[in-house]
Structure formats: C-alpha cells, structure tokens
Amino acid sequence: MSPDIAFADDNETFLGSQQFQDIKSWTHEHLLSRIEELGAEFGRWSRGSIQQFVELEVDSFVRMQRVPINDREMQLIADALTKELAGFGPLEDLLNDPTVEDILINGHKQVYVSRHGILQREAVRFTDEAHVLRIVRRILAPIGRRLDEANPMVDARLPDGGRINVIIEPLAIDGLSVSIRKFRKDPLGPADMVKLGTFDAAMAQLLEIAVRARCNILVSGGTSSGKTSLLNALATYIPETERVVTIEDTAELSLGHAHVVRLESRPGGFDGAGLVSIRDLLRNSLRMRPDRIIVGEVRGAEVLEMLQAMNTGHDGSMGTIHASSPRECVYRLEMLAGFAGYQGSEASLRRQIANAIDFIVQIGRLPGGQRRILSIAEITGANDNVVAMQELYRYEAVTGPDGEQRDAWATLGIAPHSPKVTRLRQSLQRAAGERHA
Description:
Elements: H1 3-15, H2 18-38, H3 47-65, H4 71-86, H5 92-96, E1 100-106, E2 110-115, E3 118-121, H6 129-140, E4 153-157, E5 163-167, E6 177-181, H7 190-196, H8 201-212, E7 217-221, H9 227-235, E8 244-248, E9 260-264, H10 278-285, E10 292-295, H11 302-311, E11 318-322, H12 326-339, H13 346-356, E12 359-365, E13 371-383, E14 386-395, E15 398-399, E16 405-406, E17 409-410, H14 419-436
Parallel strand pairs: 7-11, 7-12, 8-9, 8-10, 10-11
Antiparallel strand pairs: 1-2, 1-6, 2-3, 4-5, 5-6, 12-13, 13-14, 14-17, 15-16
Helix pairs in contact: 2-4, 3-4, 10-11, 11-13, 12-13
C-alpha cells in the first residue's frame, strides 16, 4: 500500500471515530463562546479569516486542554469546524463533489450517496438530529423556506439548480429524512451520452430527426433513471430560432438554448391559498406564443392540457413520465386523464393519445448503475380501440467472448411511420439535391 493511500485511510478512520466527534464537539463549544465575545464583528469576516481564526483557536484549545491528538488530526478538526461555521458542515465536501448525484440522510447516523447510479454509505456523521437540522436550515435559508412542526415537509429548488426534500418528525417516524438531488453544471449533450453508452450513434440520429421534425416525444422511466438528463440532451436539437417554454414542479431542466422561458409551480400555503399547479402553468403557457412546450414531469391533471396542446398545433413538445415500458406509459396517460376527470369514452381518449404522441423513449438504470435507453417506440395510431405502436430499437445486451456483457440494441430496420419525419427527410433530400445541382 502506498503512503498516500495509508494516509487517506488513517484520515477516514479518525473522521469516523467517536474521538473525532467528541473533540470536535468540545472545541465547537469553545469556539461559540469566543464568537459571542466577538459579537457582530465575526459576521463580517471572510471564509479565509474564519479558517485562520478556527485554526488558531483549535491549536490553543488542544494545547490548553492537553487533548491527545497530533497535528494532522488537529488540522482535520479545524477544517471540519470551519465548514461548520462558514459552510454546510459534514455535507460540504459531498455537495462540492462532482461525482455525487444524490445525498440521502436517514437520521443523524446514516448518510448515503449515489455515484454513477450506485448507492453507498458514507463515513460522514452528524452529532445528533439537531446538528442535521441546523445544516439543513442553513441550506434552506437563501430560498426562504421554513422547516418546523407547522411545516414538517419541504421540497425546494436550490440556488445551484439542485433539489432538496426534507421531512421531519412526526411525519418521519425514525428521525428526519433528507434527500438532495444534484445536477451537473454542464449538462450532458447527445454526443456525451453516446460516449457513455446511453445510446448509440444510429439512435442519436433518429432522435435528432424526431426532434427537428417537431415530433412530440415522451421520455419514460423510473426514479433516477436519467429522464431529465436525456430530455436536456434532446432539447439541444431544437433550432435556436424557436421559443421554448418549460414547465416543472421543481425547476431541474437546464436547456442550452437561446430562447427559453422557465416556469415553476408553487405549492399552496397551510390553507391551500396561493397554489399554482402545473396545470395552471400549462394553460397559461398556451398564451405565451410557445413554439414548443416541455413539461418536466407529467404526473397529474395537466395531462389533459398537454394532450390538447400537442393535438392543436404545439408540435415538437416533450415531457417525462414515470413508467416501466412504452406500453405502461400509454396506460399511465389513460389513468392520469381518468383522475383528471376526462369525460369522453376510452376510445376517444386513446385516439387523442395516438394523435398527440409520436415517440416514447424508455430509459432505465441497469443493476450496475449505467443509464441506458431500453426502447424507442413509435405510436402509429389507434386500431381496434388500442393504441398501436412499433418498437424501433430495443436494448439487448450481449455477452462477449470474455464473459463480459456489452451494450447492444436490436432493430428491425423499420423506418418511422410519422409523416412529420417523412416531410423532414424529403425537405433535407431536396436541399441536398439543390446544393449538388
């Protein structure tokens, strides 16, 4: 084992020990008393000044109290206390780690993170539930959201574009639960996803044609399957000349597009006053002269407005939905429409769905954490009271000579049925012919 690895392991062992927690707690109390003496002056200090102050005070406290730690351990305590006073405590390193996708806190003793789709437990520890609450309230402070007995559940967008969900007692029986979803500062493009193996070049070409041909597309998948990332990537194919309106419960989309209007729903107050739903925003967006409407997640009564918009000239619209397959996606649309009070017959609803949606792209997370497009299905119409579809691509991993599974997609070589795609191909062929003439 190299000295660097051994050194890192020693650090992790100390950080996860009860000795570290005890010494940090004692030193923290000493620092708080010193900060009280400083008063308002402390609030004006920079992060660098706070770091210097903490290091000096920790050194003084350790020597005075004869705490049995070495210089390296003393520096680790000083760093942790600086994060406690000027940052987000034990969460700071995880929040700054670009490989971390999700941070999940189950009470003060259990912290899990997701990296590359795989959950693993972290050595990060909090002193007690009050410690976690203090850090969470610091995260919520800039966005003006309260967390207390009157408001025991918070779901909010963070200033950096991430999302936080917190639920405390009495709703969380075994102690508070915190879920933080992080998003990349530089969203993945289609070329990046091809390199990562999410889909192959032929599928990328089909998806580009579908978006440019103004086909209506739903991205279907489970939780943390990569739906939002794929939707972001597909949106890069939208021409810069078009006006895009995005509608979300919690704004997560980060479209690299010149003309985007971002709308976000608003939860009601304690008595429900002030509620602005996705459905309200979708209705309003129709008056905003959108070329395309993108719904972050379809999961309620807004499904009726979305289908009507897609059926009445807002071609090229997109959205995500929770479903396990393209067929289940259609069933879920029907179910949501029923919950929304749809008054027509089943046959009429299925015709609306068939006329509105052109493609369903199914994405999933494999056991190893990889995100892959599992299916691309085209809706071809409504026959015999059933929404008809044809599968253009299907994920079928193959086992290589070395026994390792390799990504592969099966296709029957069927051309898309949509007249929108046909028109685009014809126009591209005409343009190519004119250039060569």
